[in-house]
């Protein structure tokens, strides 16, 4: 009996990636294979099929998270959760991905593994190398990542002109993160001439696609007239959009607008009904809303923002916008301190502990 082992596993999950025989657990043609050995071979192939099918899921998860603009810490956590759920050791996954390093999609994933130290030691140079390989093959994730490496000098010599080049390249292909980063380059003059008008256009395009950080930047541009005419109502709209997207900085800015009653005097001409509807949503034309301000500070704090945690602690300490609660104030002060809070945070906590703990 002559048997093609790849015929046995026809329909193999990773066929699109041309995985070699050795990673499939397959052999060349086997002649007169005994039944007992054939059973072992089939079992081996089935195990490999299941592993490679799971690896396809991992690649899909990584791509989805990247395209959803999650930060690297969130992506790393999700990948580890996937490995735990599927009972894979990070070192084993790293080896499998490394062996497929010449495939573009795996190169971007491998670069992330090196950058975050997943299944291997952190190696920024290797991360840059594989990001560049993927970028040069047209992978948009790789292009955005290699641009970030050039911008900050991570794993390579800092080169802002090259960073701008790669951000613009992936932005032209519609990569939303690339569009946002291109806007940042125009705004700060990174690798190009400072152009707030072009920066605003990029921010707005990314914001309309749902990119939280870009929504916050659009709000900032409207509030301060950067690259567009000042428009407080529209600014607060975009701050709210960014806040609802989970952007911690925007939540702080929105909280500040509510607590300070920004722009209220300019909106008193609005009829009371409109004042109530628009005011509750945007903080316009109403008395400053400490409760709403506290809510957005709390959302920022829950996202791990140290300033948000400090502001929540102050609100609990003073009872501004919420019920006064010394225990909660202490808890949020400690959270802010654990993230490197400044001396003012330490002194505020010390004062609270000395004067009101008991």
Automatic annotation (TrEMBL):
According to the record, the signal peptide region is none
Q: Matching Gene3D superfamilies, A to Z?
A: Tetratricopeptide repeat domain
Q: Which InterPro entries match?
A: Sel1-like, Sel1_AlgK, TPR-like_helical_dom_sf
Q: Which family does it belong to?
A: Belongs to the sel-1 family.
**UniProt protein name:** 2819_t:CDS:1
